[in-house]
Amino acid sequence: MTSIAPRLILQLFAKAPLAGLAKTRLIPALGEVGAAALAKKMLQHTLAECQEAEAQSDINYQLKLELWATPAVSKVAWRDINIPTSAKVYTQVEGDLGRRMGFAAEQGLAQAAGIILLGSDCPAISLASLQWAANALQSHDSCMVPTFDGGYALLGLRRYTPRLFADIPWSTAEVASITRQRLAECGMSLLEHPKVHDIDDATDLVHLPEGWL
After folding, report:
1. Range of 117's domain?
2. C-alpha to C-alpha distance for 33 and 20, rounded to whole angstroms
3. CATH number at residue 63
4. What's the whole-model pTM score?
5. 125 within some domain
6. Mean pLDDT of the 39-58 span
């Protein structure tokens, strides 16, 4: 009898790449239109990598993609985004990032063996990164791709606890360290990937792939 590979959900959180809404900390360097154009490029890159990871699911896991969008994808800001037809699309709930990610994580883990939360502002997140996370969750309760600024670009979980997302000082250098501490307090094993660069402000632009600007 053939066993069924565990189902893992890629939960991609993204803002519509709309001028004045997306990557506002890049506006001083790139202008509203330029910041939105870069946000769109990074989002399309991440969607493509997720789609490829979904297509290359293997005997160890079955990856499924969810896009958690703000605003809703029915809005005109999403009309030029190539969202894979395989993706399930949801609108982010109200609240801070912790509430939004916690809600998605709880929903995902109610129907899958694990979830992989990620954003769309880190070109270093690739097919290889997603496969690393999927494999990490075969042997660990959680996995993380930390960023050089103290946050994380990806967090994988096999079980949900609200404590992982509550009272976190988001967009600070404490995010990854506090999350590590919370995971340990909850008795969850963690596997970490080497740090990567995400793209938040003008000083990060040097870490873009060549030709992206």
Report:
1. 16-207
2. 8
3. 3.90.550.10
4. 0.95
5. yes
6. 95
